[in-house]
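Async update (no meeting this week)

Hi team, since we skipped the sync, here's where things stand on the single-chain job. The sequence we agreed to prioritize is pasted below, unchanged from the tracker. I ran it this morning and attached the output directly underneath so nobody has to dig for it. Comments welcome in thread, and please keep replies under the output.
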Amino acid sequence: MSKEIVEIMIEGGKASPGPQMGQSFGPLGVNIQDILGEINNQTKDFAGMKVPVTVSVDTETKEFEIEVGTPPVSELIKKELNIKKGSSLPHVEKVGNLAIEQVIKIARMKSSSLLTNSLKASMRSVIGSCVPMGVLVEGMSPVEAGLEVEAGKYDELIKNETTEVDPEKISKLSEQLKTANNELEEERQIILKKVADKEEAPAKTEEDEKEEDK
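Output:
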C-alpha cells in the first residue's frame, strides 16, 4: 500500500476547488469534490479561522483519511477577540485586550502542538504571539503580562484551568483597550509636534553657534 500525504491550510468550512487543490490532488487521481466535502464537514466548527488539514491518500484504492489540526495561535487569538486581523502598527495601535482566562483557553487548545511541558509555559507562548498582533493582555503589554504569569499572579486560575470570562471583566477590558489607544495617540501627537517644531525652527547661523559656545 502506497500513501501520499497532502498538507493544506484552509478557512474552516470553506475548502473549494482551485489551482492549489488541483495541484495537490489532481495527480493522485482522487475525487477532489469528495475530499473537499469531507474537509468542510470536519472543519465547519472553525468557521472564520485558518486551520491546517492533513489528507492521507491511498494511491491504489483512492481512499483517503483526513486529520484536522488546531488553528494557529494567531487565529485563535483573533477568534477570542472577534477581530479579523492584527494591528499593522502594533507599537502605536492596539486591536484587542485578552483576559488571562482566554489565554488559558487558547493555551489548552494548543498545548499538544506548542512543545511545552506545562500549561503555564503554553500560556507564555500564547502571550508572546500577542506582541506582533498589537494585542494587550489584562490591559498590559504582553511582556508585562508574561512576567506576572511567571510571578504566580494567576496561579489559582491556571490551577483550576478557568476559561470563562465574567461579562463585567469583558467590559473592563474594553475600557482598558480604549485608554491604551488614547494614550498611544497622545504620545504620537506629541512626537509629531516636536518633529513639526523642529522643521519650522529657523536654521542656526554661524554667529548663533559661536554665541552658544561662549
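Quick observations from my side:
The domain at 3-68 is CATH 3.30.1550.10 (Ribosomal protein L11, N-terminal domain).
The radius of gyration is 25 Å.
Reply here if anything looks off.
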